[in-house]
Amino acid sequence: MRTPKTRAALLAGLLLAASALAGVNPPSASAAADPVSVTVNTRAGLATVPDTALGVNHAIWDANLGTAETSDLLRDAGVQMMRYPGGSYADIYHWKDHTAPGGYVAPGTDFDTFMAAVRRAGAQPMIIANYGTGTPAEAADWVRYANVTKGYDARYWTVGNENYGNGHYGSAWEADNHPDKSATQYARLVVEYADAMKAVDPSIKVGAVLTMPGNWPDGITAGSDPGPWNQTVLSIAGPKIDFVDVHWYPGGTAAESLARVNHLPDATYLLRQQLARYAGANADRIGISFTELNVDAGRTTQPAALFLADVYSGLLESGVFTVQWWNVHNGMGTVAQVAGQTDYGDFGMLSSGACTEDGSVCQPPLNTPFAPYHGLRMMKLFATPGDQFVRAGTDEPLVTAHAVRRANGDLAVLLVNKDPDHDHPVTIDYAGFTPSAVAPTVSTLTNGATGIATGQSGSATSRTLPAYSLTTIVLRPAGTSAGRPSTPGQPTASGVTDRAATITWPAATPGGSPIAKYEVYRHNGAVSEQLGETASTSFTVDNLVPGSRYTVNVLARDTAGRVSWSSPPLTFATGSPAASACTVRFTTANDWGNGYIGGVDITNNGTKPISGWTLTWTWPTGWQQVSSGWSATWEQVGTAVRVTPTDDNRQIAVGATVSAGFVGAYSGPNVLPTAFTLNGTVCATG
């Protein structure tokens, strides 16, 4: 949704406050006293890096969109996907005559010029069809021109950009000429767009716009829609689309933006829950793209580089197929000092060479890379197509870790030090991988650096991370991987109850020796907990915890002791008992984007009256809480909620129900609880 200088000007007041907090010149960094423990676990496999992973946005107001210098810089940064014609401009852009009524179109930014830039960079295009002021026929003609007339083989097409911002929920920044601006109407027209576009080229992939779980207007139902935006769009358009398109601007200070990366696993989990629940049969075919990301404070300085590397890694390891930075060039914003560096408030990762209106401050020369560009280059060094992300973690919130295992057996580890004031020594422990004694290849991006320093140094198990830095370590294995079994296929879960699940997977292919058994592991943070082993390709796990989320992998071990790579991950959630002496119905209503009216209805299914009761549950995240409540006494400690009766509802007769209500609040993805305990008994849910 971010547009050039006009948008930056609208945000200037907010940015000034945010940047002022982050803009104190730091003292020389000192080392923290205690080393950070880093765990890298190759038994806990995550998603595989796709060939569309690293993306950026191009915009038709950028006169440098098609220059060789710009394309070469993007190629050197490893850009694999480029989005066009630019955020909200997409909903006013008409490709045939290359116009955007009400906006500025720079010379040399037409579609053919964009495609030449894409090809020079060695990337793939993602194109936004005009929903706001366009038609399905116009979009279909664009597909015909791109793929039939010109043979560009443009695979990915999104219908519109941030169309929930059309005034349907109050705020209006996105153009929408349709009299009906509801989520229902958007979904109906997505179906028409998809049908028209695929009639021209059935091989293309069509995407629909969704909201980020936990961000406005997630959870809000407006007008006559049957539910919130995501539910409504998926229920109608789900069978017709191939992917969904989400944006995320976490906002806040630099420290707040960096901390909110922790929201991503729950956000992508909720998106997949919504797809499974509302998008119809075979919903797991629908991909997820995050096509706009940036920060408020430190856009051209180190906070943006740290955020980019951390969020790209977090989303890709969760299975998102492309992550795209907003923007290549954008223009001057509010100038501030952030962590001792001049920040130009520019959403672009390359300098536009602009100056403030009074000429008092100018950016460096055109196309000078800003910090997020170097962050993207670090991602190129870290995660390449075909690598498999594996679980990594630390015991220090200001230091995060990500890791990938490569086809040649190498392991790459990305370490992010979000502390602007302190170097952090780290010790690294490896599970399922033994590094060689050869010094690893180390790449480092430090605060204020104009490039990445790379060399061979140190050991695989310890080093010191400079304050506000990115560090990538590439390690060779100590032994050979020749002869190991192939990777087991994608596991699936069936028969999931509150306490058990059956996990099944396609067999691995033997390598140098026959396969002896399969081992099933559960992720417990960055540590793997073995759930069991079997000679078959199916395993039933018992003794699970009701209302809990599990991520598991399968590994094959042969008779010589060689172990395969980890299978792709499987995530499933246990529920509540099918039958119990009690039933709890948990309700939400009147969601306003960061809170809602909640309720619990407790039914006595037993054979005796209940005299006095205590209801407990645990929130799935740390950013959910009970703000206030009624008809009961409400207490929350950490994530644990405890509800006790008033004098009026202490007694629950056999077959009777008592109710209590509360105001719920959340500041991130709102993953609702699914297991409740009454007087020590796990209840059924209704």
TrEMBL record:
Hydrolase listed as a keyword: yes
Span of domain CBM2: 575-686
PROSITE patterns: CBM2, FN3
Domain Fibronectin type-III: 487-577
UniProt protein name: Cellulose binding domain-containing protein
Alphabetical UniProt keywords: Carbohydrate metabolism, Glycosidase, Hydrolase, Polysaccharide degradation, Signal
SUPFAM superfamilies (UniProt xref): (Trans)glycosidases, Carbohydrate-binding domain, Fibronectin type III
Record-linked SMART domains: CBD_II (SM00637), FN3 (SM00060)
InterPro entries cross-referenced by the UniProt entry: CBD2, CBM2/CBM3_carb-bd_dom_sf, CBM2_carb-bd_dom_sf, FN3_dom, FN3_sf, GH, Glyco_hydro_b, Ig-like_fold
Top-rank taxon, per record: Bacteria
